[in-house]
């Protein structure tokens, strides 16, 4: 049996040492990345907050929310109520709670605007990103501007201007008589609006890249319709008058409704468009 020389033994020991050292680095590195990315952080922690602000002098609510649910409803005429739930994850209940508590929110009046901003948060492997859910009560005639990246948006009873967009998530407006100009927009998600056009002139825009649009207006609402979808159908129960009387050219329907009025532009790339008429009650 051939013997192992000193040089060969030295090389073997060096290789063994490198393997052990590499294994130590791998374990240590995995532990660091696990802590950073949240691997194994399966416990959810919440931090709730309630804040009341005077509504005097505020004409616009300006909310930026990267991830989470948003609900804005008409309430008191002299007070704004903000309920937030910050949600984070950790390897223990205490760690998750501390992470949620550490998420800083910006709630600040700036001139005639009330500015609300949630932190972006970190994406954690195999689970949701840290998020903030908002439940806000404001005067009905307050203008609303919402920029949401991920999460549904719900508006209830609003009577002012609206400029609302969400990239991923549905957008619903219940009993909302928006005034022009108003824009409701989603990238991926449906849009549902039940209410009325609160202005006799101006422009309303309802736009969805991937998702259906359903609008329910009073049967006596007067407006000028400009509806178009690239992939999908258009179903409109309102009689359309003027140059486009009863003409549905592929995926396009244009014309005056009840004599015309503010322009209602509806666009979908992929998704159907439905306009329903509610009976007017006196």
Strand and helix map with partners:
Elements: H1 6-37, E1 43-54, E2 60-67, E3 70-74, E4 79-90, H2 93-102, E5 106-110, E6 113-117, E7 131-138, E8 143-150, E9 153-156, E10 162-168, E11 171-178, E12 182-188, E13 191-197, E14 203-210, E15 213-218, E16 223-231, E17 234-236, E18 252-257, E19 263-270, E20 273-278
Parallel strand pairs: 2-6, 2-8, 3-7, 3-9, 8-10, 9-11, 10-12, 11-13, 12-14, 13-15, 14-19, 15-20, 16-19, 17-20
Antiparallel strand pairs: 1-4, 4-7, 5-6, 16-18
Task: Describe what you observe in this structure.
By secondary structure, the chain is mainly beta. The protein has two domains: 41-151, no CATH class; 153-282, no CATH class. The chain contains two helices and 20 strands. The strands form two sheets. Strands 1-4-7-3-9-11-13-15-20-17 form a ten-stranded mixed sheet. Strands 5-6-2-8-10-12-14-19-16-18 form a ten-stranded mixed sheet, with no helix packed on it. Strand 5 (106-110) and strand 6 (113-117) form a beta hairpin. The chain is flat. The protein starts with 5 loop residues before the first helix and ends with a strand.
**What percent strand?**
over 45%
Question: Termini separation (Å)?
Answer: 107 Å
Mean pLDDT, all residues? 86
Radius of gyration computed on alpha carbons:
27 Å
Low confidence ranges: 25-39, 123-127, 244-249
Strand order of the largest sheet: 1-4-7-3-9-11-13-15-20-17
Q: State the total count of DSSP E strands.
A: 20
Spatial shape: flat
Structural class: mainly beta
Q: What's the total helix number?
A: 2
